[in-house]
Amino acid sequence: MSEQYPTLAQCALVAAAFKILLFPAYKSTDFEVHRNWLAITNSLPLSQWYYEKTSEWTLDYPPFFAYFEWILSHIARLVDTAMVRIHNLDYDSWQTVYFQRTSVIVTEVMLVYALQLFMETSPLQSRRAAHVVALSIILSPGLLIIDHIHFQYNGFMYGILVWSLVLARCKTTLLSSGLIFAALLCFKHIYLYLAPAYFVFLLSTYCLSAKSIFRPRIFNCIKLGGCITGIFGAAFGPFVFTEQMPQMLSRLFPFSRGLCHAYWAPNVWAMYSFTDRVLIHRLTLKEGALSSVTRGLVGDTAFAVLPEITPRTCFFLTLFFQILPLLKLFSKPTWENFIGAVTLCGYASFLFGWHVHEKAILLVIIPFSLVALRDRRHFGAFKPLAVAGHVSLFPLLFTPAEFPIKTIYTIFWLVLFLMIFERMAPASNKPRFFLLDRFSTLYIAVSIPLIVYTSLLHQIVFGKRYEFLPLMFTSSYAAIGVFGSWVGYMVVYFTA
Amino acid sequence: MHGDYEAQRHWMEITTRLPISQWYFHDLEWWGLDYPPLTAYHSWVLGKIGTLINPDWFALFSSRGSQDPNLKIFMRATVIVSEYLIYVPAAVVFARRYGRLTGVSIWTATVGLVAILMQPGTILIDHVHFQYNTVMLGLVMACMSSLLAERYKWSAVFFVGALMFKQMALYYAFSIFAYLLGRCTFPKVNFSRLFGIALVTAITYGVLVLPLVAGTIYDTYRGVGSRSDLDGPPPPLPILAWLTDYIDTGTFYYPVVEMVVQVLHRVFPFSRGLFEDKVANFWCALNVVLKIKNYPTELLQKAALVATLLAIVPPNIIIFFRPRKATMPLAFAATAWGFFLFSWQVHEKSVLLPLMPMTLLLAGKQGLNRDIRSWVGFANILGAWTMFPLLKRVDLRIPYAVLTLLWSYLLGLPPTSWSVYTDEGFGGWSQVGTATLHTLFYAAMAAWHVAEAYVAPPLHKSDLWTVANVGVGFAGFGLCYLWCLWRLLKDSDLLPSYATKTKTQ
């Protein structure tokens, strides 16, 4: 089969050129966070990494990420020694910016490799679709906004995830798939949300016999268990040895934070808070006290009307909605079901999780992209997610210079890829849900006035007042989209 | 910081806040207006729109040197919008027409079009630095595509528009004149066409100057002088001072005369030197050998005039006798190269003018084949390279590197790939010669970048790297001029040996 143009590598190269041009763009505190980690890992012995707190941005990722920063810091020191000094808070010389931004672009090669593998392992009849999907991920506005402007290493992390997902396709590489995922967990613990799907999938395909679930394959179990122990040992061993474990765990899982993050991530709790605000408004109007309407949103989880939400509630809701798809995965452990289950685990944790960050939407979008082109039903559920997920990232960038970049790039990407997807998605052999199609068309149409309002009209009408309104509309709008696409995909998943 | 940025912003300020008669007189020390009227009108429109959004952006005096980030977005957006209103449609139409004319498939013409729109030099100067060259270049492109469509009167309108936007469009004036004259002369003399074109040209000029003239008369009638800071009798004219011997300074039309003279004076700064900055043309290269400053200005002016004429006469004679559509961009490019290399007061950014018609060749017959692609690529990369000192001064090294490398990567050109020279097999010794020559230049450019970045020039020659840039640039541009001229000769079937060879094949 002849190669398709433009190839993934060509697109990645052109995209990299664009990203380099964005070097001087806005960067969030995450930039300083990562610089600080470079400094910590470079100038302190391992025994103090998780105790150090000169900066408020303490190290709160698992050990592999710390090792990764430690390796980077050796190069960083050569580029600019001042970058790796712990007391040099908020240091951003141009060398630092160039170095850190370049490291994001370079480590994204992991994602390119994983997507290339994804294309090559796709069955012949869907290879064109796989090609388009790979291009859509590598050019994703989500990664552009979060990684290359806002600053993080998601391209690298999701590269590892996609790599692991692709390896799960083939019986012979199941073990490495699981191990790579274990390693990924030691990089960034947010992927714990997807772990149940991995657990069930590996259990039923690797550890249990295909004939009967009551016949475990002992040798496979030992291999898997041993290797995973080895990986976790390599990651956490040194910290167990230096007696940092309790300290590290308190850093990794800070339960003291609130239900909603600074900007509301578009999940169920955003809709819940929105309802609460509307109810307050109604009640206070009657009582004539308007002042409480504009209560700040940041870290504010006190509900006035509706009952409080506890972390326990979140946890059980998340678990419940993760178990549903896992039951199907356990009975029919195909690769497609596995990806579906991973996606639905991502959905459940995003929608019902405690203190979810809007960046976590990639946890849903990227696995979903891999199967979005299976048929029109899948694509129908994917559409509102693609719109809502990316629009919900807009508030991350609020500086005037980045406004045209994020808007134009995202709209261009959405138009281009949704159009191509539309054309490529094969018809489904099951009837479609026309209500859902209507809903998604209407939903996408609403995004246009929403973007116009939040970016232009609001300023003209209200000026600096009610700054929370656009944020609230954006997240409520996106929450409806994410929730709707979740319901849609649940239906598709269980009826496929 | 960005000189050009502040200049453009300032013009929006003076055109929206001052009476029209003062536009060309207001505080010339602070980025006084020095482009023709259409630029002023353009600034006025943009300034009016900007004032609607935020009146402080263009407040008189108080807005000077404003660094408001929102203003920056607005200004950048105006460049993009102006480009999309004029340059992009003109390029699309031209590529379509030129491709169809020369029998090129739509796909190839589109690839050529993308290459034209992504020209690194234009993006670097307009969108990264800050200018509105694409408006002028777009109007010239529109003029050229009207020539292809044989709508000669429209081409005159567009060209006058370009000229009234930036006087630099004069680089093309000779070839447009020669081409139109040729079209009116061969195969048989067509006086009515010639007269029509002349009339339309005159009318367009009149229409474009009219607001300025009418505004000045109205301001005089209102009692608003062109210079609010001066009292008493009008000061002497800056140039053409003998005019006052014939015109009474008290008449009602004297302010108009004064205004026109002032515009000419501002737009054509003959009083300045032969060149301002280091620019890769003949005079600057010559300056290395003999110090030009020691010669009298009149002599230099005459020398520049003669040299320019010598350079531009051959392509214009060819295009006059053989006014072919397919070769027209070559004649434009050769003439513009002639101006760039030899004329008076050339700026580094003027290299965009010869590059534009030369790059248009990509959309034509065999545009993406070895010969044209390698030379167009060479000229563009070299052009961007000669602008590097300018870009470096405002810290634009990274965009320079990214945009040039990206363009050459997408077109499969050096320095990212040498396949353009080898793709089509062995093409004779001329091919080997071209490849060697280009490679030498690319190597020189690369070596220059290394040297400039890591080696400090000797103390008594602190501008060594700039001078080296000028020397290499001049040599390369000279070759580009010769190539355009040679291609023009060849494609006009004026090379006897070549003509017979193709017939026998």
TrEMBL record, chain A:
Bilayer topology: Multi-pass membrane protein
Predominant cellular place of this UniProt entry's protein: endoplasmic reticulum
Top-rank taxon: Eukaryota
Protein name (Swiss-Prot/TrEMBL): Alpha-1,3-glucosyltransferase
GO terms (BP aspect): protein N-linked glycosylation
GO cellular component assignments: endoplasmic reticulum membrane
Family (UniProt): Belongs to the ALG6/ALG8 glucosyltransferase family.
Assigned EC number: 2.4.1.-
Subcellular location: Endoplasmic reticulum membrane
Chain ranges passing through the membrane: 98-117, 129-146, 158-184, 190-209, 221-241, 309-327, 334-350, 403-421, 442-462, 468-494
UniProt keyword Disulfide bond, yes or no: no
Keyword terms, alphabetized: Endoplasmic reticulum, Glycosyltransferase, Membrane, Transferase, Transmembrane, Transmembrane helix
Function noted in UniProt: Dolichyl pyrophosphate Glc1Man9GlcNAc2 alpha-1,3-glucosyltransferase that operates in the biosynthetic pathway of dolichol-linked oligosaccharides, the glycan precursors employed in protein asparagine (N)-glycosylation. The assembly of dolichol-linked oligosaccharides begins on the cytosolic side of the endoplasmic reticulum membrane and finishes in its lumen. The sequential addition of sugars to dolichol pyrophosphate produces dolichol-linked oligosaccharides containing fourteen sugars, including two GlcNAcs, nine mannoses and three glucoses.
Molecular function via GO: dolichyl pyrophosphate Glc1Man9GlcNAc2 alpha-1,3-glucosyltransferase activity
Pathway: Protein modification; protein glycosylation
Catalytic activity annotation: an alpha-D-Glc-(1->3)-alpha-D-Man-(1->2)-alpha-D-Man-(1->2)-alpha-D-Man-(1->3)-[alpha-D-Man-(1->2)-alpha-D-Man-(1->3)-[alpha-D-Man-(1->2)-alpha-D-Man-(1->6)]-alpha-D-Man-(1->6)]-beta-D-Man-(1->4)-beta-D-GlcNAc-(1->4)-alpha-D-GlcNAc-diphospho-di-trans,poly-cis-dolichol + a di-trans,poly-cis-dolichyl beta-D-glucosyl phosphate = an alpha-D-Glc-(1->3)-alpha-D-Glc-(1->3)-alpha-D-Man-(1->2)-alpha-D-Man-(1->2)-alpha-D-Man-(1->3)-[alpha-D-Man-(1->2)-alpha-D-Man-(1->3)-[alpha-D-Man-(1->2)-alpha-D-Man-(1->6)]-alpha-D-Man-(1->6)]-beta-D-Man-(1->4)-beta-D-GlcNAc-(1->4)-alpha-D-GlcNAc-diphospho-di-trans,poly-cis-dolichol + a di-trans,poly-cis-dolichyl phosphate + H(+)
Any one Pfam family match given in the protein's UniProt record, by short name: Alg6_Alg8
Automatic annotation (TrEMBL), chain B:
Chief localisation class: endoplasmic reticulum
One example GO MF annotation: dolichyl pyrophosphate Man9GlcNAc2 alpha-1,3-glucosyltransferase activity
GO annotations of cellular component type: endoplasmic reticulum membrane
TM stretches of this protein: 73-95, 101-118, 155-182, 194-218, 303-321, 328-346, 372-391, 398-415, 467-489
Membrane topology value: Multi-pass membrane protein
One Pfam family named in its UniProt record: Alg6_Alg8
InterPro entries: Glyco_trans_ALG6/ALG8
EC code(s) of this entry: 2.4.1.-
Places the protein is found: Endoplasmic reticulum membrane
Pathways involved: Protein modification; protein glycosylation
UniProt KW keywords: Endoplasmic reticulum, Glycosyltransferase, Membrane, Transferase, Transmembrane, Transmembrane helix
Family: Belongs to the ALG6/ALG8 glucosyltransferase family.
Protein name: Alpha-1,3-glucosyltransferase
